[in-house]
Amino acid sequence: MKPYAGVEAYFELVPWATVGGILLAFQLFFMIYFNNGWAEGNILLLIMQIFTIVQFADSILLMWDEPEVMYNIVYKVFRYIFLAASIIFNFIYILFFINLMTLVYSGDIWEYNEDNLETLFVMRSDLTDEDTWAIYDIFSAMVTTYFLIAYAPTFAIDLVI
């Protein structure tokens, strides 16, 4: 395999490797510093970090665009798996964003009725006590905001794939 020496490397691969590397470094810093070392070994956080690193490595290979790599039958199967994983993750990320906007604006952008996607989220109408609404909304907004901040680099990396 010959090394990639095309001029496209300077306009595609190098900028993406720089930006993606900065995003990955931000996420690593966030997970190590703010989460006290991935919450002392939380398996979900570790798996998501490995997922982000694998997706970033795949995006580098996609930007590299070397024919010997791109048309390898084994890598081709993994490319489709990585693409499906990125689509699923980004869909879930967007649902979390919609959920946060629903909590923050409490009905201004999402009407609570039977005709829309009420089954996707726990709605205020599911809780009977008004005091529980505030506690639930605050906790749900905190968890959702954490997810959106912690995995924004994964979302950006998956957009490239």
Structure description:
The radius of gyration is 20 Å and the shape is elongated. It is built from 7 helices and no strands. It has one domain (8-160). It has helices spanning 8-34, 36-41, 43-64, 67-70, 73-105, 130-150, 152-160. With 161 residues, it is mainly α.
Structure keywords:
161 residues; mainly alpha; 7 helices; elongated
Number of strands: 0
- What is the percentage of strand-forming residues? under 5%
Uncertain spans: none
Q: In angstroms, what is the radius of gyration?
A: 20 Å
- Count of helical regions: 7
User: What is the chain-wise order of helices and strands?
Assistant: HHHHHHH
The helix content, as a percent range, equals: over 70%
Give the averaged pLDDT, no decimals. Answer: 79
Class inferred from helices and paired strands:
mainly alpha
Distance between the termini: 23 Å
Largest sheet: none
Global outline: elongated
Tally of domains: 1
Please summarize what this structure is.
It contains seven helices and no strands. By secondary structure, the protein is mostly helical.
Helix/strand layout:
Layout: H1 8-34, H2 36-41, H3 43-64, H4 67-70, H5 73-105, H6 130-150, H7 152-160
Helix pairs in contact: 1-3, 1-7, 3-7, 5-6
